Give the backbone structure.
Amino acid sequence: MTGRLRDRRAVWAPSCMVAVVTPTRPALCQLPNPFDCCNHTDRGGTPRCLGAARRLGPWWSLCAAIVMSACETPGPADAHAQPAVRPAPPAAHPPRTAEPAPPPAGRSSLGPSPGPGQAPAPRAPSTAAPCPAAPEGMACVPGASFVMGVDADAHVCDQPGNNHDRAPTTTPAHRVEVSTFFMDLTEVTNGAYQACVAARDCPRDGPRYRDFSAPTQAITGVSWFSARAFCRAQGKRLPTEAEWELAARGSDERPYPWGDAGPTTCWMAIVPGVTGACAEHRGTWEVGVTAEGASAFGALDMAGNVWEWVDDGFDAYPTSDVTDPRSPILPGGRGVLRGGSWDYSPQSAKTTYRLPYLRRSGHVSVGMRCARDANDDGG
């Protein structure tokens, strides 16, 4: 037995034994990370954790099966894992357009609306400060007070697909006051980033595969440093984590940018398990197609397509009210990704979901969008 194989067994054993001997489902939902690798599948549709277990022997296959069935939906995938295989190419490439622009409200650039009743109408925020006119391509998010995170006492394990909300990264719920700011309507595209590289304002970075490199597709494979450099070159910055959650969640504290129900079509979110033309391949899609999933402020792609870097370092949430919070990134510390992506569980598209990630790491599902202070003239 190799040392690597012994290490794998040592890691799997504690979680698996807990799953075997623990009779109650809520306790299983609070396991630290036994479900992580089950969010990804190989080309044959087999969860990677189950495939790995089969290679380790029948006992580990049984353990993996028990762990996978403990909660109805797996939690976040390992933040540091790189894709084991190249993602399958799309059945059809995304449409190429000169400039990505948000489609008209209620319509998709890929086809007709999925129909009435499938996408809740955006709700107006309950409290808002005056909002100035937003720059082109950006939305004004009026300053507001809202509840960030989720309550640890919420019985989310009893609700299908919500077990990830008990993770300590999303608790406790706390009230945050955020000042008015501007947020990009869509994620940054390959075309925009490569123009920044050509101008020598951004480091060479970007998608690893040709299927992800269309000019109007969301940029992927960028580190936190590359994302920050791009935003600065545009006279902008990365949004804080609190700003990102307000832009996605609204002051009415919706679970998803569009409302209470999870995504059902790719016109709401580019995530696994949805229907629609843009769900026909595994990978990113052109930005701005999720017209049915717009946030209360008109921002698109806040759920799915690619993870988005925020400016903050990863840290535990405070237990008291805060105003315009910013968590500094310590040397060697991790950053935070928000919004879920095309290759993660649909539950990661929740507005409260946060994923710690190494700042120097890029990934085929990691991108960005930029923000700007409302009192910044952009000069």
In short: The first strand starts at residue 138 and ends at 141.
